[in-house]
TrEMBL record:
Family the UniProt entry places it in: Belongs to the UDP-glycosyltransferase family.
EC number: 2.4.1.-
GO terms under biological process: monocarboxylic acid metabolic process
Keyword Transferase: yes
Gene3D superfamilies: Glycogen Phosphorylase B
Keyword Glycosyltransferase: yes
Residue span, Glycosyltransferase N-terminal domain: 6-44
Signal peptide coordinates: none
Gene Ontology molecular function terms on file: quercetin 3-O-glucosyltransferase activity; quercetin 7-O-glucosyltransferase activity
Protein name (Swiss-Prot/TrEMBL): Glycosyltransferase
UniProtKB keywords: Glycosyltransferase, Transferase
Source organism of this protein record: Pisum sativum
Length: 455
């Protein structure tokens, strides 16, 4: 490899589930000699508790720099403002960095939610790499919407797309069904593909072995498409990077949950979490609470501070059987031998983490891409069970209880456990030396060095 410094800007959409995998990818390419600067809106940066010390940060404007003064009225308002001022702010930053010695920008790795970053990169004649934070199946669905081949709302009960299993409405992205009330979310995810043919690279946080068929299909459309995942801290995979135990952006350093798990028997605890954004209504929280109280297993339940008031009044947050915390180091929890089952909302990061750490799941998808992630986990990768909802879209306590006992106790659980252990091995292999994702990451890095020597 050449001695020249390559400088990449890495620009995630400002949300936990986006910054985590992109930061992780940054650590990997940094390990291969690339200089990385993480770029985030100032308003988001002000509330970021901490970042790994090896990562340099620069900020851009999203239009809400003085966050105390002007707050976005809605998500749509936020996007409109950010999209309006983001391009110029990013261009200003690149100009500024280009003027500083050893900071010339060679490449922009941008979250595909923000396609305008690619236009800015191209204005500067530098490499633009799209980073897709959702899986290949989900991207294929949104790509079909972009191409006008799937139009909301749909009449068909079963949706058939190339290289994907047949999908029911409950497997489809929720934004498809809310489009008529509010098109903001579907427009955002479909716009990922508005200029993608101009990208030099399209990187995706998944691994080839996990989504082979749709992977082959995608490569036929974009020859510069590569899987680089699972993008999770290295300690839990092939241990290439020393002491890489967390993503590095978490606010809470509490080890209470891990300490609590330490004296529990192997596979005796149910871990329950609905991610950083998921909100349950009071009725659903009540059903989960009743189930956990009666299910006969220990439980560790993450209930965000914003959700706490929805807990039943008499529900004990710390008891013989269970512990409720506002946040936990999820990777360490999933890696703990006391965990026997993960009741999850099926966010893509949580899905990859469950697979990579070998934990079987009870799938309780809420919105966005979670329906398809649940479908894949249950019917394709066969690592769990889906808790069905009633006509009010609520998972009742008896349903949840029987799913948990199926994972914790039944004969079927052995088969599920075997499957999840196979995925765990394949995930580690994908990012290990000569693994598919590792080779793709190296190919990407080499192309950056090669590009810089011929320019
Ligand atoms: N997470 C965590 N502690 C918690 C809950 C979540 O560290 O108590 C992390 C989890 O490991 C994952 C991320 O938050 O990396 C959630 O991302 P995901 O895509 O699963 O869901 P989202 O929050 O985007 O809905």
């Amino acid at each position: 490899m050449e001695n020249k410094t390559i400088h990449c800007l890495v620009i995630p959409f400002p949300a936990h589930g986006h910054i985590n995998p992109m930061l992780q990818f940054s650590k990997l390419i940094q390990n291969e000699g690339v200089k990385v600067t993480l770029v985030t809106p100032l308003s988001y940066y002000k509330n970021l508790p901490k970042l790994p010390s090896s990562i340099t940060v620069e900020t851009i404007s999203d239009g809400f720099d003085q966050s105390g003064l002007t707050l976005p009225k809605s998500f749509k308002h936020y996007l409109n403002q950010f999209w309006e001022v983001g391009s110029e702010s990013l261009a200003y930053l690149i100009n500024n960095l280009n003027g500083r010695s050893n900071n010339h920008v060679d490449c922009v790795i941008y979250d595909s939610f923000m396609p305008w970053c690619l236009d800015v990169a191209k204005r500067f004649g530098i490499i633009g790499a799209a980073f897709l934070t959702q899986n290949l199946a989900m991207n294929s669905i949104y790509y079909h919407v972009h191409m006008g081949k799937l139009k909301p709302p749909f009449a068909e009960q079963v949706i058939s797309l190339p290289a994907l299993p047949q999908l029911l409405h409950r497997d489809m992205p929720s934004f498809y069904f809310t489009y008529e009330q509010d098109p903001t979310f579907l427009d955002l995810v479909v716009a990922q593909f508005s200029n993608i043919e101009k990208a030099d690279w399209i990187l995706c946080n998944s691994f080839f072995e996990l989504e082979k068929e749709v992977g082959d299909w995608t490569m036929k459309i974009w020859s510069n498409f590569r899987t680089i995942g699972p993008s999770i801290p290295n300690t839990f995979l092939d241990k290439k990077i020393k002491d890489d135990e967390d993503y590095g952006v978490s606010e809470f350093k509490s080890e209470e949950s891990v300490e609590w798990l330490n004296n529990k028997a192997k596979r005796s605890v149910v871990y329950v979490s609905f991610g950083s954004l998921g909100a349950l209504n009071e009725e659903q929280i009540e059903e989960v609470a009743q189930c956990l109280k009666d299910c006969g297993s220990y439980f560790l339940w993450v209930v965000k501070t914003s959700e706490e008031t929805k807990l039943p009044k008499d529900f004990e947050k710390k008891s013989e059987n269970g512990l409720v915390v506002a946040w936990c180091p999820q990777l360490k929890v999933l890696a703990h031998e006391a965990i026997g089952c993960f009741v999850t909302h099926c966010g893509w990061n949580s899905t990859l983490e469950a697979l990579s750490l070998g934990v079987p799941v009870v799938a309780m998808p809420l919105w966005s891409d979670q329906g398809i992630n649940a479908k894949l986990m249950v019917d394709v990768w066969k690592v769990g069970i889906r808790a069905s909802v009633d006509e009010k879209e609520i998972v009742r306590k008896e349903t949840l209880k029987s799913c948990i006992s199926e994972i914790m106790e039944s004969d079927k659980s052995k088969e599920i456990m075997n499957n999840v252990m196979q995925w765990k091995n394949l995930a580690a292999r994908a990012v290990g030396e000569d693994g598919s994702s590792y080779k793709n990451m190296i190919e990407f890095v080499n192309s950056l060095f090669h590009h810089s020597t011929i320019n």
